[in-house]
Amino acid sequence: MQAAQSEQNKTQIAKTQKLKMNEKLTFGLGDFGANYSWTFIASFLTIYMTDTVGISAGIIGTIILISRVTDGFTDLFMGTLIDNTNTKMGKAKPWVFWTAPILGLLTFLLFNVPGALGQTGKIIYIFLIYLLISAVFYTANNVAYSSLTSLMTNDKNDRVSLGSIRFIFSQLAVLSITTFTTFLVSGFGGGQQGWTITTIIYALLCAVPLMITGWFVKERNIAKRKTEENTTQRVPFFLIMKVLLTNKYFIITIILYLLWYLRQTDNGIRVYYATYVFNNADVMAILSLATTVPTIIGLMYAPKFVKMFGIRKSITIGLIISIISYLIMTVFSENLTLLTVGLIVNAIGVVPFTGALSAIVADVGDLIYWKSGVPVQGSVFSLTSAGMKIGSGLQGAIVGWALTVGGYIAGSSIQPDSSILAMKSMQIYFPFACIIIIMLVTFTLNYEKFLPSVKREIEEGKVGENRTKDLAKI
């Protein structure tokens, strides 16, 4: 730690130029592509495996959990790799660009389980492909992509803008996937044939946008740890872990990421809810529109809203709105019109948190760098990504387990009451509880009052041992 804080390792980052809109849009395009792997798998893997391949929901849930927990650990090493990557192309950009086509291919393979394999063979195949996606190639791609928020700029408003734009593109992808997938699968012949043709299209929609982002955006806010001779020094993995895991704001951020993705059991259950509660799989399109369109519109205004009220206050206002929406959905869980109203209100409520999430991580990365002198732009996103992966892994497992415990009968048009209750729990009750906890945790994010002074000291090279130590206790 002394080496990180010594005067030999003084570093200065100049304030970066404001980003142009075309580069922000190019950045956002990457999240559009990533969701054709991430959201597609999260939304349709379980129903594909149960109703087409014939694997139980409980087994799929367990595979998801094991893979996502493993994924959480590989995230730790991925962040260090990015922080120690130095190429002409950049630190994060090459990882985004070169992993994209492999990620698209693996997504295609996951939804094309060979029919000739026996039951055990299919389970092994699914586990291996899913593990490669979640623990290796999606990890490498997503940690690098998320790191670009910090590497592209150190301007707070631009970071919130990047977060909003990426989630607008993300929601556009989510809207397209959840609205059109069932129509595409049935339109291309249904069964395995329908899934095969659909996933060819989705594999391309995954790879190409990510490659465009990885090639065209610019990294201009790179923190470097230097020696006396002014040569770049490799940052030890355990030093990075120490400065991250001993910072309270970083721990808070991991918890928020875990809860935010854990609450999204509604994504995995939505197709079941439409099919068995409303007796029409196409109702999923209505539920998806109600969830995504208000979010997309709201994210256009999120940067101004956050700038006006600050990150913590704007998030709190939004979460109160979200809590009201869940009360509506709890009362009217089988009324399509009023449930849709509840989803719309909830979509508006989660906008501030959605838009500010990446900015929070980048800010925390700055706080840690200022305090320790250790550059953590990649690692801070890798560990929060670990929270996301573990949260979403638990989310996927919980959906599968809930269906199994509820007695879900694959392919049956009539489900037992216990199965319907499991679906309602995953769509409404469990996310409701998570939102309440998220709001309580958000109250502890109180760094904004001293962040401007921290950023000013970073620009002046006052980091690590050279910072103003009584500026704030963080």
Helix content: over 70%
Number of domains: 1
Low-confidence stretches: 1-14, 225-232
CATH C-level: Mainly Alpha
Total DSSP E strands: 0
**Overall average pLDDT:** 84
CATH architecture: Up-down Bundle
> Oligomeric form of this entry?
single chain
- Individual helix count: 17
The CATH topology turns out to be: Growth Hormone, Chain: A
Largest sheet: none
Distance between the termini: 17 Å
CATH homologous superfamily placement:
MFS general substrate transporter like domains
**Helix and strand sequence:** HHHHHHHHHHHHHHHHH
Morphology: globular
Using only CA atoms, what is the Rg?
Answer: 22 Å
Strand content: under 5%
Class from helix and strand fractions: mainly alpha
Keywords: Membrane, Transmembrane, Transmembrane helix
InterPro entries: MFS_2 (IPR039672), MFS_trans_sf (IPR036259), Na/Gal_symport (IPR001927)
Transmembrane segments: 25-49, 55-74, 95-117, 123-144, 165-189, 195-217, 237-263, 283-302, 314-332, 338-362, 398-416, 428-447
Organism: Oceanobacillus locisalsi
Notes on the protein architecture:
The protein is globular. It is mostly helical. Helices cover 76% and strands 0% of the residues. It has one domain: MFS general substrate transporter like domains (Growth Hormone, Chain: A). It contains 17 helices and no strands. The longest helix has 34 residues. The two termini are 17 Å apart.
In short:
By secondary structure, the chain is mainly α. It has helices at 2-5, 21-53, 57-83, 93-110, 119-152, 156-187, 191-216, 237-245, 248-262, 265-277, 283-309, 311-331, 336-349, 351-372, 377-405, 417-442, 451-459. The chain crosses the membrane at residues 25-49, 55-74, 95-117, 123-144, 165-189, 195-217, 237-263, 283-302, 314-332, 338-362, 398-416, 428-447.
